[in-house]
Design brief:
The protein is mainly alpha-helical. It contains 2 helices and no strands. It has one domain. The chain has helices at about 15-25, 30-80. Helix 1 (about 15-25) crosses helix 2.
Length: about 80
């Protein structure tokens, strides 16, 4: 099955090959599987960061909305005090 997959050569910095080999060994994976796992992790990280950005945007909108409501409530309270 793996022979049906695309294959390509990648040039690694001199110090990266032994690092990948060592980490792959620690994780009981082949170097290829270690590299694939790490690439997959970056996709997940990207998706997580995009989701976090959307959530932050929604939270900021909600905060602005609540601040506006609070300001209106304060105005109403001040108006009732002067009546």
């Amino acid at each position: 099955m793996s022979q049906e997959r695309d294959k390509f050569v990648i040039r690694l910095p001199d110090d990266m090959h032994p690092r990948i080999k060592s980490i792959a060994r620690l994780n009981n994976r082949s170097m290829n599987n270690e590299i694939v796992a790490r690439i997959e992790r970056t996709f997940t990280l990207d998706e997580t960061m995009e989701l976090e950005a959307k959530i932050k945007g929604l939270m900021l909108q909600r905060i602005e909305s609540l601040e506006s409501e609070l300001a209106q409530m304060r105005e109403t309270v001040e108006e009732k005090k002067t009546d």
